[in-house]
Write a structure and sequence with these properties.
The chain is mostly helical and 402 residues long. It is globular. Helix content is 80%, strand content 0%.
């Protein structure tokens, strides 16, 4: 009788954790989307606020810089305070910022609110270590893959939704809708997420001061973070300039087509849990190298066949797959290095990741203004090549990433 009760209890716990994973994935998708609504809307925003294409590229760049700052100062709090409460507070602040973006009267206000939105849209980075901590060791890769897959799906679907809403209702309407969704997610997560307290207590000052020594101590963390930063920089370069490319001959399309291409890219994001399984089976280094090669192949396809919508769709799918595979493989690996410091490790990793994204976005604006699509493709390929060099050389200090 007791054995029957224990089996039933385990089944109930498994079912609850499964529902929680699904909720975390949906939340990661909706929240991460805040960073990328702007990309298919850049040409609209530039016209309304009298910005050049180069200046409008500062909007996603500042959003990514803000995200890196938020990761540095807010995500480590997951190792210090109760995580569910932290998630709710961050969501309410980003709601106010999105409303500020929707009503921005000029470019300077929009740039400021973009920075603030990025800073407080770090909730997926609080929840990814939370998912890993609540999972068995042999299933951590899949758990992280589910949450981060949700994040990438949000990144890609953000462009689809924003393209549609922007085309029919204007770019300001998109940010108003996003603010409403943040309030809805705050209510839902408050009702459904369990209380999640950190494994160890640490003061905030000690928390921040421990980040640099942690990075110095873990060469595998440095290698994984820099490789992923280069990959995300290439990814960001493509998506930042795509809407401008689609407005040139022979296309003459706008935000809605850029959004539809984002929908095609979700195919790559859906591979995230499967990539986590490969990592769980002991081959993260091989998987990471293959992912970087896939990313380089994507820019070859985009350069060669970018003159057709089918070519852009296929190239985008391949790029999204390579970027996500590289992220999940490296992120799963670093979470296992020091389990009690998952949030701080995640901070070092994701700050580097989004600094790479911001750099790719900034350079993409320059490349587009000078060399158009060929320059963007060359930039993306060079970022993946740099990541492959780091992968081949191994990590600094002689500790290779397995």
């Amino acid at each position: 009788m007791r054995d029957h009760f224990d089996v039933a209890a385990r089944r109930g716990l498994t079912k609850f954790v499964g529902r929680e994973r699904e909720l975390e994935q949906k939340h990661a998708a909706v929240t991460a989307a805040n960073l990328y609504y702007c990309q298919p809307l850049l040409s609209q925003i530039a016209r309304v606020l009298h910005m050049t294409a180069r200046e409008s590229a500062d909007i996603p760049m500042l959003t990514q810089v803000g995200y890196a700052l938020g990761l540095l100062f807010f995500a480590p709090l997951g190792d210090m305070v109760e995580r569910r409460r932290l998630v709710i507070v961050l969501l309410l602040i980003v709601t106010a910022s999105l409303l500020g973006t929707a009503s921005a009267p000029n470019a300077w206000v929009l740039l400021a609110t973009s920075l603030i939105t990025g800073m407080f849209t770090v909730v997926p980075q609080v929840m990814a270590p939370m998912a890993s901590a609540l999972s068995k060791p042999q299933a951590q890769g899949r758990a992280v893959g589910i949450v981060m897959g949700g994040m990438l799906i949000g990144i890609l679907l953000a462009r689809t939704v924003a393209g549609f809403v922007g085309t029919w209702f204007g770019w300001r309407a998109m940010y108003t809708v996003a603010a409403v969704m943040m309030v809805a997610m705050a209510v839902l997560l408050r009702a459904m997420l369990p209380v999640s307290r950190p494994d160890a207590r640490i003061q905030y000052r000690d928390l921040l001061s421990s980040l640099i020594p942690l990075a110095r101590k873990l060469p595998s963390l440095r290698q994984a973070a820099i490789m992923s930063g280069f990959a995300f920089g290439a990814f960001s370069a493509y998506w930042t300039t795509l809407v401008f490319f689609l407005e040139t001959p022979p296309y003459h399309y706008g935000a809605q087509m850029a959004g539809l291409l984002g929908l095609a890219g979700v195919t790559g994001a859906l591979a995230a849990p499967a990539v986590g399984l490969v990592s769980d089976r002991g081959y993260p280094r091989l998987a990471s190298g293959c992912a970087l090669l896939i990313g380089m192949l994507a820019f070859g396809l985009l350069r060669t066949f970018g003159g057709t919508i089918a070519g852009l769709a296929i190239g985008g799918i391949v790029l999204d797959l390579g970027t996500q595979a590289n992220l999940i493989t490296n992120q799963t690996r670093v979470y296992r290095l020091v389990p009690e410091a998952r949030n701080r490790i995640n901070t070092v990793f994701m700050v580097t990741y989004f600094v790479g994204g911001a750099l790719g976005t900034f350079l993409a604006g320059l490349a587009w203004s000078r060399w158009q699509w060929n320059g963007v493709c060359a930039l993306g390929a060079s970022f993946f090549a740099a990541a492959l060099i780091i992968w081949a050389l191994g990590s600094w200090g002689g500790q290779a990433l397995p």
